[in-house]
């Protein structure tokens, strides 16, 4: 069972002359009053009484008083705390009459509950670290977030390179008429030489045909003197005619033009290959980007699972990229009431034995928000003692010139027919 404040008496502390309070066990108790009347002094006195001399105000004694401060706080577990005298002597007495000291109080009094502004004044990261520490996932979440940031930076770099490669590939020229591979000058020259050799052989055969034609003519003229020679020449001529009948010379014009254009052709081939490589590079980086995205999503899911499985003090409370969030909003985007609700829940989680919290200056809340906050406190079994510059009906007690007095509830006038 968490410990609450059952009653308290304060005398001659800062602006307080004499104040008595009996807060409700659960919910919100508002100490109202105008400025400089002693509202905050009441909270400072409670913090000093329960938190020790480290929370003692620098000007603890009420100005003009010859009587030293006196504070008496009765807690719901039956312990009575008395701090009084010029040396602010502490007495802690349990229900059985046994005496204790500050160490006994520290077991069930959370320091942030006495000094909530200290928690509220932390950076968003510090608040998140406090939450993660108390739910026991700080180290593991830090590892996951470090891994996520590493993957994110790597993916960002890969994405930039992929975009650059893709843009570079699009800007490069494409030559549809270029071959797939580089053209070799040596191969073209070899092909040219082969054709020239075949053409030379054709020319040799033509010359041989002419030679035998001449010999045939001579043989015919000398037929009568050289019949045998004529027959041989005739046979040779016939053979030569057959060999040369279907011969056709091949043109080297295309090869000669290719040799002349080889640098231009190869430049086009090189450009096409460069573009193809750039496109392949861009696709490879895109694949890496997708893989890194999947890894980041896996790490983020592990973070979500880690927090979902943690014993968080408030539904909707989480940590995103090292910052505290509530219902998806970071600290600086939360309303004042949401910030108080989150802070109160975390403070209670820090020490479940402490069932109360002190809150100064609730002026930023309207009455509807105050009521909602009060109902939430009641539902959570929490007690809050707060101050507000007001003398309205929402106040539980009014501090005026250092004294406590009851709130004067305004009567509601009801109009009835026929009554003037």
In words, what does this structure look like?
The longest helix is centred in the C-terminal third of the chain and has 47 residues, at about 260-310. The chain has helices spanning about 40-50, 100-105, 110-115, 115-120, 125-135, 140-170, 185-220, 225-245, 255-260, 260-310, 335-350, 365-380, and strands at about 5-15, 15-20, 25-35, 70-75, 80-85, 90-95, 100, 315-320, 325, 330, 355-360, 385-390, 395-400, 405. It is rod-shaped and about 170 Å long. The protein has twelve helices and 14 strands. The chain has a six-stranded antiparallel beta sheet. α7 (about 185-220) packs antiparallel against α8 (about 225-245) and α7 runs antiparallel to α9 (about 255-260). One of its GO terms (biological process) is double-strand break repair. Keywords: Coiled coil.
List strands and helices in order, with pairings.
Blueprint: E1 5-13, E2 16-21, E3 27-33, H1 39-51, E4 70-75, E5 80-84, E6 89-93, E7 99-100, H2 102-106, H3 111-114, H4 116-120, H5 124-135, H6 138-171, H7 185-221, H8 227-244, H9 253-260, H10 262-308, E8 317-320, E9 323-326, E10 329-330, H11 336-350, E11 356-359, H12 367-379, E12 383-389, E13 397-400, E14 403-405
Parallel strand pairs: 3-12, 3-13, 11-12
Antiparallel strand pairs: 1-2, 1-4, 4-5, 5-6, 6-7, 8-9, 9-10, 13-14
Protein name: RecF/RecN/SMC N-terminal domain protein
Organism: [Eubacterium] siraeum DSM 15702
Keywords: Coiled coil
